[in-house]
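hey so u asked for the seq, here:
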Amino acid sequence: MNKKESIKIAFLKSIPILCSYLFVSMAYGILMQEAGFSWVYSLIVSLSVYTGTFQFVLITFLSSGASILTVALTAFLMNSRQTFYSLSFVEEFKKMGKRMVYMIHTMTDETYAVNLTLETQENKEDIMFWVALFSRCYWMIGTVVGGILGQIIPYDMEGIDFCMTALFLIIFIDQWEKNTNHLPALLGLGIAILTLFVVGAQNFMLPALLLVSGILLLIKDRKERI
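ran it, structure tokens below
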């Protein structure tokens, strides 16, 4: 497979991300504009931070003058789940040379989900890189467009972020249909619901990931011993 074919496959794989990122990043750009920050600042944040959920929270921090420590701690806690995502692709990242740092920086929920569908794909590492690059471009383009739209037209974006939920639902269904072993999916759903009720919607993600990862590692270790 040549470079052109890898780019084509990566683009096709990234279309669901395109459909969600453009709208959500436009909403982010509009909210930044409403908070008094032009599209230039929105673009700079997207280039350096690049984590959708926290970028929305960051708008409040920037407007309220929160301390750097508060911003840093919140960012770490909100995005610590990415640590677990990256463990799934340690070997692939090692093979990518200089691109490894970029892949770590651009790992998101959406690129992680799409990369999981590439297990049997030829030139997997190249496709992963282009998916990450395309996805980041989608987000930055939407950010700029949203910032500009926020200057010229009033537009209510309430509820547009549901497209992210729809994206994950589609990917979940696709993975369910492709795999015969549904234990990880059922385990993830069960533990996520349990932790949601125990610690609440704002704090359930990290403990759920810890529990699911730990249980799956124990199951794997037990199978290997048998």
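The chain has a mean pLDDT of 81. The CA atoms of residues 110 and 218 lie 27 Å apart.
lmk if thats what u needed
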